[in-house]
Specification:
Elements lengths: L14 E5 L5 E5 L13 E7 L1 H4 L3 H11 L8 H5 L2 E8 L8 E13 L5 E14 L2 E7 L3 H11 L4 H4 L5 H37 L4 H6 L4 H38 L5 H88 L4 E4 L4 E4 L3 H24 L1
Parallel strand pairs: 3-7
Antiparallel strand pairs: 1-2, 1-3, 4-5, 5-6, 6-7, 8-9
Main location: membrane
Keywords: Membrane, Transmembrane, Transmembrane helix
Membrane topology: Multi-pass membrane protein
């Protein structure tokens, strides 16, 4: 923002667009202190400046406050970090002239293109309206898309008759703000709907356990979308409060106006009705934003529950397989208990109870063979009983 006649080198010259009753646009750069709209016929000036550089320049800040009644708190950190607000104050002109008005407003919109791809759109504006013939709107740190949008909204022929109401700028700006909020909310809704469809496809598919594990939800993406949904719901709710402030200020302006002409009253009512309309539109958008956020939260919960259910089913399958293995091992253990004691006894005795006589070509069994059974049978029974007892324990 340049304030001396030669301009401030650090802040640079602002970009100024002028449009009079003839509807012809004039674009140039010069210090705002040299901008005189009193000599023009119902002229509106749209100024694009850089607030980030002006904040660091004490001389430019002081000159801006002198020319446009900028309050000191407008430069504070909490105003710069706010997600939306509206304020106004009267300009006392002296004599019998009706007071002018200075307003400042801020809107913040988040556009989501993907999980990690998003854009913050900031609309930081200030209006200075001494009369219908002397109106200036300053836009700070506007992007190229915001700049083109505002030029199209405010620099048309239809604004001439509306300029008698010093709040005419806001009902046009709110049209753009509502459009951006609509893009923001429905853009998020598209991503949420994609997540919902993918969940439905996963629930209906007959994939194996390994494939289901590989096809689990992308929780990082879901939580990024949830963060975007929280921001969008927050900024939409703030926009509603901002519009309420604009409606209230315009209502006070209508009551305090001394212009009783039918044309002014008609235009003022038109502007008021438009502001009320955008208040209702913003409320509907907020409801849509909250519903989208709740849908996403529900989808995240569903994803957690589905994964938990799949994990539980996998755990049950593992348990059944382990149970089958345990049954087989128990059978093997029983067989071991049957043969091991007898083998143990036979090893202890190291005695052969069977003898083959080649000459007679027949087997002979020892008369003491009963000792084998007398020892091995009780030991086997005791081993099996002990195994069953300890198994139950």
């Amino acid at each position: 923002m340049a304030v001396p006649s030669e301009g401030c080198e650090e802040c640079g010259l602002p970009e100024i667009w002028l449009c009079g009753r003839d509807g012809i646009r004039h674009q140039f750069q010069q210090p705002l202190s040299a901008l005189n709209l009193d000599q023009r016929d119902e002229c509106f000036a749209l100024v694009f400046a850089r607030a980030n550089t002006i904040t660091e320049c004490k001389s430019c800040r002081a000159e801006l406050a002198r020319l446009f009644s900028v309050p000191t708190f407008w430069w504070t950190q909490y105003c710069k970090r706010a997600n939306g607000y509206f304020g106004s104050q009267e300009i006392v002109l002296g004599g019998d002239s009706p007071p002018g008005i200075t307003t400042w407003a801020r809107f913040l919109i988040k556009l989501v293109q993907g999980g990690d791809d998003y854009t913050w759109i900031k609309l930081n504006i200030m209006t200075h309206s001494v009369s219908a013939k002397n109106q200036i709107m300053m836009v700070f740190d506007a992007t190229e898309s915001t700049r083109e949008r505002l030029l199209a909204s405010l620099m048309d022929d239809g604004r001439n008759e509306e300029m008698t109401d010093l709040f005419w700028i806001y009902h046009r700006i709110l049209n753009d703000v509502m459009d951006l909020h609509d893009q923001s909310i429905w853009g998020l809704r598209t991503h949420v709907r994609t997540v919902e469809r993918s969940s439905s496809e996963r629930s209906l598919s007959d994939k194996s356990s390994a494939e289901s594990t590989a096809d689990r939800p992308n929780y990082r993406k879901l939580h990024d979308l949830a963060r975007h949904a929280i921001h969008i719901a927050e900024t939409t709710a703030t926009t509603i409060n901002t519009i309420h402030g604009i409606v209230a200020a315009h209502g006070e302006y209508m009551k305090a106006s001394t212009d009783t002409s039918d044309s002014f009253q008609s235009i003022a009512r038109r502007v008021q009705n438009r502001l009320l309309l955008y208040s209702q539109v913003a409320l509907g958008l907020q409801n849509r934003a909250v519903a989208t956020k709740d849908r996403l939260h529900n989808e995240i919960q569903l994803s957690f529950n589905m994964v938990t259910q799949n994990d539980a089913a996998t755990t049950i399958d593992i348990g059944l397989i382990a149970k089958e293995d345990s049954t087989v091992m128990r059978k093997i253990a029983y067989l071991t208990m049957v043969f091991l004691p007898a083998t143990f006894v036979s090893a202890i005795f190291s005695t052969s109870f069977f003898n083959f006589n080649p000459e007679l070509e027949r087997w002979r069994v020892s008369e003491m063979f009963w000792v084998y059974w007398a020892c091995s049978a009780p030991v086997t029974l005791v081993a099996i009983a002990s195994f069953r007892f300890w198994g139950r324990a």
